Amino acid sequence: MGVDIEESVGVQYVADGGLDGFGYITSEDFRTTRVALQAKRWDRKVSAPEIDKFRGAMDKYNAEYGIFVTTSDFTRDAMRVAKSGTRIITLINGDKICDLVARYHYYVEEVTTYKLKSFYTNNE
Fold first, then answer.
1. Distance between CA 88 and CA 92 in Å, rounded?
2. Which domains does the chain have, with CATH numbers?
3. Is the separation of the CB atoms in 25 and 35 below 8 Å?
4. Range 88-104 burial, b when 16+ CB lie within 10 A, else e
5. In whole angstroms, what is the distance from residue 57 CA to residue 10 CA?
6. Rounded to two decimals, what is the model's pTM?
7. Residues 6+ apart with CB under 8 A from 78
8. What Gene Ontology molecular-function terms does this entry list (predicted)?
């Protein structure tokens, strides 16, 4: 999705420096931005302290932009904290992950489905 991942930062399970990924995004006007990535596969909601920890890891790597992804959702405090400060963190929850997978066709294939109209299902 346009992120050039730096393989030496955060792409390991342990001792990742607080990041799950780090890379660069180059915009259409050729401006390159350092981006930090964090991903959580959780059943419970991600809370504000997790966002704060991520922001600290962003500082460590001088990231200008952050993306925090979870399979669950975020608490209201986490959403508020993500928008505070000088660097807004983009939050992607489970529903948005599904939207992105469909939009970019990651690991999916399109199928066509049909639904019968009421004429065929009417039991009168």
1. 13
2. 3-121 (3.40.1350.10)
3. yes
4. ebebbbeeeeeeeeeee
5. 10
6. 0.76
7. 45, 46, 47, 48, 50, 51, 91
8. DNA binding; restriction endodeoxyribonuclease activity
Q: Among 61, 20, 26, which Cα is nearest to 40's?
A: 20
44 close to 26: Cβ distance less than 8 angstroms: no
pLDDT tens-place values along the chain, 124 residues long: 667 777 766 555 555 557 888 999 888 888 898 999 999 998 999 999 999 999 999 998 899 999 999 999 999 999 999 999 888 899 999 999 888 888 888 777 878 888 877 766 666 5
Q: How far apart are CA 62 and CA 87, in angstroms?
A: 11
DSSP characters over the chain: --EEE-TTSS-SSSS-TT-SEEEEEE-TT--EEEEEEEEE--SSPBPHHHHHHHHHHHHHTT-SEEEEEESS-B-HHHHHHHHSSSSPEEEE-HHHHHHHHHHHT-S----------HHHH---
Q: What is the token pair recorded at 65? A: 């932009």
